[in-house]
Amino acid sequence: MKISKISGEVKEIFKKTAKKLSGTTKREYIATITIELLDGNARKAERVFGWGRATVKKGMRELATGIKCIDNYSARGNKKTEEKIPQLVDDIRAIADPKSQALIDEKGYTDDELPCENTIGYILNRLGYRLKRIQKTKPLKKIQETDAIFENVNKVNRQADESQETLRISIDTKAKVNIGDFSGNGKTREKEPENALDHDFVPDTQLVPSGIFEPTNDVLTIIFGTSIETSDFIVDCLEQWWEENKERLSHIGELVINLDNGPHINSHRTQFIKRMTEFADNTGLKIRLVYYPPYHSKYNPIERCRGVLELHWNGTLLSSIGKAIEWAGTMTWKGVRPVVHLLDKVYQKRVKLTKEAMKVYEEGIKRLENLPWWDVTIVPTFG
């Protein structure tokens, strides 16, 4: 059969089949086609099928002699610099290793011998010396009392949730929210996205979000402050929350409050203990402050709500206080929208009591014997 009698579709099949083969098998295949259909003419094979003449001739010689040429593809091309200059690997490692004092001029290379800067970089990558960010020192993840603190938290929380006269709440204050045309790196479903500032300049104002969460009721209250985070701000938020909910919670005689160990709410913050004692006296509520261990604030129930709020408003520009309050009010936690307020009051930093003044309040509180910093009970002077 001659090539003139072969249809174009069959020719395409020959080409596609040859592409799927490689090495000796491919050469034998294209040589056979050339001999049978093209009278062994390598030039015609190149013109009709696009196969290289040299490859076709090599395949026909292999068929004629029965000797197969073994391909050595790994030996082709430019070898890695490490293979051409074996000593270079050890020398680069000596330079890159921070424990070594070796200098490049001690190795004796010339500019002509050394590869370019990019190649040195590739070698460093292959040796494991990739560019890496400077990492902060990781804090201690567990203190000696961690297990005991968790055991106590779980026990107290369980007892509180089972009692009809006790309400457990979780409180926390998060990082300030910048008000202005700043990008939150979120997404919004709009035909045209809003335009944020190209740089995060100093904001005109900031809001301090403080949250109070009732885990058993899934009720969330968010109060935004316009000043700074202090012990007074946090207790003012608690007082505002209680004033708004005291009728609904008139049967409650004790508040169990879950907290982390933030600097403004820990149990050795004198102003916080003073204000919480006054809160207990004014409301007649027994207060029990139950703290999570250091570095484990993520277990505080209100932390779950914070992530929902950030995802909710990251796609919009919080260009004004009113817009931030509005957006916070439209988030949902388990299908329920939070109660949102604004507390416009100026607070002072570093308010604290003297040791003598603090003695009065220490006498009125009870600390758990084996965990004095992690479980504090405040009993009102009346009620």
UniProtKB/TrEMBL annotation:
Gene3D superfamilies: Ribonuclease H-like superfamily/Ribonuclease H (3.30.420.10). Pfam families: DDE_Tnp_ISAZ013. InterPro entries: RNaseH_sf (IPR036397), Transposase_36 (IPR011518). One of its GO terms (molecular function) is nucleic acid binding. Coiled coil: none annotated. This is Tc1-like transposase DDE domain-containing protein. It comes from Candidatus Methanophagaceae archaeon ANME-1 ERB6.
